[in-house]
Write a structure and sequence with these properties.
homotetramer, about 350 residues, alpha+beta, 5-stranded antiparallel β-sheet, 17 strands
């Protein structure tokens, strides 16, 4: 299954070491003037080789739009696009014809399909997330018509954590450093930690926090389409994710109901707003007009630049000689992916909401 | 949207104060002998009024199966069922015709639909989860054919937390106490905490941990159908949930890749198994044959038995006089709901997996 | 698969000889005042035993609405409903435990599921179409808000055919006779033919023509969602159908393009209209604002009241002793089913269309 | 909506005058050795400029596969592909910036989207069917594993009709003439008719008959997933179609049940077969193991090489000066498209059927 969404739908394809990755954006509303440089800019935020804390692999990640636009405006027809793969070192992966790396998809894909594309992780490579970034960039431009903006940032790397909540941060600083953390001091610590880990041939995890502003009340759908459920599903489909929470999240477990409820401002203004936002902008599965915010936990990826004891496809012990060009911490490059997935979900629920009332 | 699943699909309906709740289970494989008492037993685990830590509301929650079985065996045709609502005190909710309770769905449903069923929370009531329990009970009986079992338990209430991980617990003790915690000492503390909170007219949150055993390697689908994403979406669709993580989860953020990778046992046996299970049984979005385990965070519900300052539908300040019969902590009754949703997802991916290979 | 539609969705359940049939209407827009008598009226048009040309089986077909309405108005939440089965003569079907009737679903269900509900055809019985009529009746009431009306009629039974096209008929006469044909003379001939066929214990086929008025231009979706494709799929899902065409249909094969194109009226009025309507109201898969009309062919059903040579489940020759209470011609009762399916499709495309533009 | 299928899914994109058309084939089972020349061969059967009876437009229609194969074998991952557009005469369409052609999608797309790509019909052009042919070619190679073959042919052009049913024809002769009719005499008449019509700048309709052999009993799904409904929806999504019937089809309306039922052979062999096949291989919505056959009616296309009175976007009378390179009869090139759509449906139901039983 490679399709996200219900009526705004994105279907992606492609492996890290094939000819190209790409996809089809279907259900894009007609009449949106598209800024293609802004689309490419999102890809540039995700692309490898952008700084010392990311992989050294080089890909220009240039998107080619093949359909669905006329004179730069969406026509309502599906938008096909491709991104050519460029910097392939397939021979880096020759050992993988026969070896299963620990905590990778090598064994699980083989178990599922009876075979796998061993080059660069095949479809399990995070490379495919570039196509989601393209779809998200289109969604984002439609959302801008409604005043909805989405901004994510790195809130934790290893044990370096931004203590302040997002309302006390200047999110416009996010892109001013390589780790994408709006707290400059923490950003420096995070960067140092990643470089240390990289030097050891090791990896480290982190957390991305995402904030959606401007969403009107009424988005999402009871029960199966709860907005929190849709965001959770979208985020947990990103490679290397292990957890998701929104609003008070896991921390809310320790709270009393009386502490955590979000009282309405009683100033007579309508639509109503709340004094606090422990709900994270979603109540009963539907947005309430406050900021929607959530956290996504990323594991330390399993691609070490070390020798690792493992097995081959027949169960024999072998040593995986980790090499190649990999991210010591995926979180900085995951920030635009989280935003893209959030945009895909938000546009879908915005469009679906139009059908809620006669 | 009230449908879960792709080819094993459950569509539910019903409000807490209508004539009945129910649903349609579609895609149930033919040829499964159904133990209807076991289905009712799952409902009994979820039903209100079962102990001092739950709401005092009484519902027999008797399921009536209307189709899809012959001589007690599934025919492959859809299984329709209803559960009559019985113990309705609609007048408890008269004030809600005009008031919005804080952190409820009162305002968000009104924003979405232009009106709402104010009686008992309408469709936003957790009462609808009873229908998911029925669907899950059918799924569970199909999964039993493959040796897959699902067991959840309460692992945290407020700050009372089971420290041991599930592999050190005797999960067969889960049903021996009212809070559904297999650690008897912690269970006692949890129960006491809930009773204290209840006495104050307040509520408290908690965590349910769920363990799936016997799932073969190969379940789940790359990218949009990643098993972790599907479980996350299913769990976060349950009322009052605020977070989800699996395997090492949020705690993995602090680990190094070299600590967290799950090395294969190198004993030559196939299919392979791992020495540790930080992955939580899922690698690259696909099950690897180890136990699948995850946690779901539940907030303290917003239904207080206190006076709460709020607003009415026109924005005027009013006082919500909390009353009625509510759960001070939803976690004990959420345990069978988590299991049911896990069963729905697992059967769906089991059936989908059959199409993966020629 | 028992779900129709994309965002207005109907999921049905039930066999002819179980406790009840029913379903869930999901995606019904909020704010529609429902006339429940009108819903029941549609069921009465479909119910058995209504005249000499239909089966003598008696079912009151009383619908019970279980959810989704408050004070008679749709809330946006799913509408669950059931219709109890009443007049079951299961013993009529005892021979079917072991025999396969020719041209029935007896063998094909067994091939698919490994077993079947032999009582009254189980899920393959046209009885399930009663649930579609309920869903269609709800859809129709939403469509009325937009001025869209749907009317079908019997245009052929055996070789008795209404020669005039619908624009020359007074469709308000459709319900004035038992066969539902607005041409009184042809209606008489059809009725006589059906009674003759019935006397012989035989059956006869026919054609239902359906006309949708008031649909605005712009409904339907290019390629997979073409309106003609959606109507074809919906109609061909009705029991006993063998063919579908719309506009000039099969007859258009013999025409030249120059004869068949629908020239625009050149009177300067906008939106434009056409001088002819060979297109049947759909061009390029999308409605053009003219009447949408189509035909559905129904075969003579295979349930004869005669002895028929056939085989049992082991392949041995046996004689099927046809008995029971069956329709000699399904067309008169299929008229409201065709209308219901048309309404389900139309409301779905109306709601989807709202997402087409920014 | 640009996606076909449930678990074998094809999503296409592209306009006739953009950079490329293409698509994503998702759910292709792993382990199928793909003959890429056979894929290209199917495209060659559909491509323009292949004979005197088709458009003179030249496109090499070369498919480029971008993902989903390793060493020529499907990996279970999505297959992305593109076909570059080459022979574009966009200036042929300049008048269409302001004119609506009769019986085209010019007005309906504008009504739906507020704008349209006027070049070559944009997405409404039959050019997109080339992408379906690619998807169908992959499906066909998977179906070959199960011994299922699909063959279509031209059975009627205007009033020239093949009288014999397909069982009396040698379908291996289909590709021996330009019109794709296995009856050589009729083929000659059809060809002459098309050339006559072409000379007049006019167009003519026709019928494609399709035969599926080797499908086992049990394919398709009751109610919404009836095989006849799925085939109808797929076929009626092809450009220029106006009708579909299967088995006895519209002609069955005149038959008695006693004439039309397909009696089982009573020779004791299992699985059972029938003496006749008026059912067209489908009973109760599910295949019965006999040949599946159906007919698709194509209208005379609306693109005339004549002057045609019409209106512009403001409703003013203008003359459409038909020119360009168009098919006088689409039927010969529609044959491989019908086959492709049949293959897409069949593979989907084959894979879905695996989930029918425990």
């Amino acid at each position: 299954m490679n399709t996200f969404g219900h009526i705004f739908r994105f279907t992606g394809f492609g492996e890290s070491h094939g000819a190209a990755i790409g996809g089809v954006i279907d259900g894009m509303p007609a009449g949106v003037k598209i800024d293609l440089e802004a689309v490419q800019h999102e890809l540039d935020r995700r692309k490898p080789g952008q700084s010392a804390v990311t992989t050294a692999r080089k890909e220009s990640d240039t998107v080619e739009i093949l359909s669905g636009l006329m004179d730069g405006v969406t026509t309502g027809c599906p938008i096909g696009f491709i991104i050519r793969n460029e910097n392939q070192h397939s021979s880096d992966y020759d050992q993988l014809r026969t070896a299963f790396r620990p905590s990778h998809a090598d064994y699980t894909y083989t178990a599922k399909y009876g075979l796998r594309d061993h080059r660069g992780g095949g479809r399990s490579s995070a490379r495919e997330t570039a196509t989601r970034v393209v779809a998200g960039a289109f969604a984002r431009q439609a959302l801008a018509h409604y005043g909805i903006t989405i901004q994510a940032y790195t809130s934790q790397v290893g044990d370096v954590k931004v203590d302040a909540d997002y309302t006390h941060l200047d999110l416009s600083l996010t892109e001013t450093n390589a780790v994408r953390c709006p707290d400059a001091v923490k950003a420096g610590e995070m960067e140092q930690l990643i470089l240390d880990v990289k030097r050891e041939g090791d990896t480290i995890g982190g957390v991305v926090t995402c904030v959606i502003k401007g969403a009107p009340a009424g988005l999402g759908d009871p029960v199966a389409g709860r907005l929190g459920a849709q965001l959770a599903g979208a985020m947990m489909s990103i490679n290397a994710t292990k957890g998701f929470d929104y609003g008070m999240g896991f921390a809310g477990v320790n709270m009393r109901g009386s502490e955590s409820i979000d009282l309405f401002r009683r100033d007579g203004t309508m639509p109503p707003h709340t004094l606090t936002n422990n709900s994270g902008g979603i109540q009963g599965g539907i947005s309430n007009g406050e900021d929607i915010y959530f956290r996504v936990a990323f594991k330390p990826v399993a691609t070490l630049i070390q020798d690792v004891p493992t097995i081959d496809v027949e169960g024999n012990p072998v040593t995986w000689k980790g090499r190649g060009r990999h991210d010591p911490c995926v979180v900085p490059r995951a920030v635009p992916v989280v935003e893209a997935m959030a945009a895909i979900v938000l546009l879908d629920v915005m469009l679906l909401d139009r059908a809620a009332r006669i």
